[in-house]
Amino acid sequence: MTQPFSIAIHGGAGTILREQMSEELKASILADLEASVRAGHKILLESGDALEAVVSAVKVLEDSANFNAGKGSVLTNKEMVEMDASVMHGKELNAGAVAGVRHIRNPIELARDVMDKSNHVLLIGEGAEEFAFELGYEYTEQDYFFTERRYEQLLSMKEKGLFALSESKYPDDKKYGTVGAVALDQHGNLAAATSTGGVTNKKYGRVGDSSIIGAGTYAENGNVAVSTTGMGEYFIRKTVAGDVAARMRYLKEDVHTASETVIQGELKEMGGEGGLIAVDGQGKLHFAMNSSGMYRAGIDVNGNLSVKIYADE
Ligand code: ASP
Hints:
single chain, alpha+beta, Glutamine Phosphoribosylpyrophosphate, subunit 1, domain 1, 4-stranded antiparallel sheet, binds aspartic acid
């Protein structure tokens, strides 16, 4: 008998309003979400490892300009991209992460290589890139990441003196478009991956939760895998992904209760808008958000696909 397996992905949570979403943009986002979850699911179906599945799902979203990761990353105050990413494998609690990388097309691959090929967990900036180029990564020019849309967003944030997205010019202006994936494979392994461009107009080497193990990403076999999205300054202080895992481990809460308690509880009271995706040791998927929407998709243990945007769906 085959063991259960399942996967969930997200493309960011936040204020996503129906009236501001064109049919064309919606169709394009839904297509990307489905392509991502299917890419990861295919690997699970072929008996591949959960980590392979989450990395390949995230890569699909990093390669799309629709999300704030890889190609579609937001711009810093200095008009460039600086990306953060992390992965975790639940079997031996191995993890890898990068922060502030500027010339890496798929930061999620580099995070996995930090886990597999270095003695460290988190590499930053130039050092992380030096490691990448030694491994044979291609130097990706900043031009590859530049989109007119992100440039206009940056100008509007600069004008308002804000560093986070907070007023809408685009449907996802108040949306934290980080991407992530969690999966359970047929061998009982749980894994999580998260990748982001961070927040528009960030300065001084700001790093969010997406490269922090225990905040943006966590995976522990037999328990849960979690990937988060939202304002990193809150998610780091509430150690969101780690807190969900701890509640399940010590309080024996189920994935639904633990995720909702964290996302709808103190995090929300502090002002931490956002959400998370999680999968437990039996493959049960959960999507939690305290915002009006979260781009998300899943294929459950019965092979059923769901692709959603709004919180009330
Ligand atoms: N969590 C990310 C950060 O703060 C933003 C996001 O979720 O889009 O860098």
